[in-house]
């Protein structure tokens, strides 16, 4: 089931999401991410922002390699609670390190985020997480998507 146009616009417009993965012991691991959406998949690059561990040891990547099931929350807060909304996206994820899909993902991310235009994002160094939704659940005020 494809989400409504309003939900798709919301997903594209938001700047940050929270990605949940599960470690080998079943504990959740949640990180904020920048992402791009092509209408069927979401992409998030491991970029040049400082990391506490080396890229291959990043918990989200280790978790995805062990268990590809992920959940993404994209939300928008308002003091007027009648305008609260979020989209929960459940699906599977995999790591792309090179190739056409990788390059397309980087291009989409650079279109959305000016910061990526100045970063050196290269194949085999900066992997991309490719998320394929299996269920998209919107909640809240989606009638006023233009506001």
Which topology does CATH recognise? Pnp Oxidase, Chain A
Proportion of residues in helical segments:
10-25%
In the residues, how many domains can be counted? 1
Termini separation:
25 Å
The CATH architecture designation is Roll
How would you describe the shape? globular
CATH class: Mainly Beta
Order of helices and strands: HEEEEHEEHHE
Reported for the largest beta sheet, the result is: 7 strands, antiparallel
Helix/strand structural class: alpha+beta
Q: Give start-end ranges of low-pLDDT stretches.
A: none
User: Strands of the biggest beta sheet: in what spatial order?
Assistant: 2-1-5-6-7-4-3
Please identify which CATH superfamily we are dealing with: Electron Transport, Fmn-binding Protein, Chain A
Topology, number of strands = 7
Helix segment tally: 4
Q: Average the pLDDT over all residues and give the rounded result.
A: 89
């Amino acid at each position: 089931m494809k989400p409504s146009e309003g939900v798709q616009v919301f997903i594209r417009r938001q700047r940050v999401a929270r990605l949940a993965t599960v470690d080998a012991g079943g504990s959740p691991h949640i990180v904020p991410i920048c992402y791009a959406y092509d209408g069927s998949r979401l992409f998030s690059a491991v970029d040049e922002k400082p990391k506490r561990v080396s890229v291959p040891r990043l918990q989200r990547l280790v978790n995805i390699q062990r268990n590809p099931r992920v959940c993404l929350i994209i939300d928008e807060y308002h003091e007027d609670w009648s305008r609260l909304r979020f989209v929960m996206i459940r699906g599977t994820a995999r790591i792309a390190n090179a190739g056409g899909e990788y390059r397309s993902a980087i291009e989409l991310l650079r279109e959305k985020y000016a910061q990526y235009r100045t970063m050196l994002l290269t194949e085999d160094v900066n992997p991309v997480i490719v998320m394929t939704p299996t269920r998209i659940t919107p909640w809240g005020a989606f009638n006023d998507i233009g506001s």
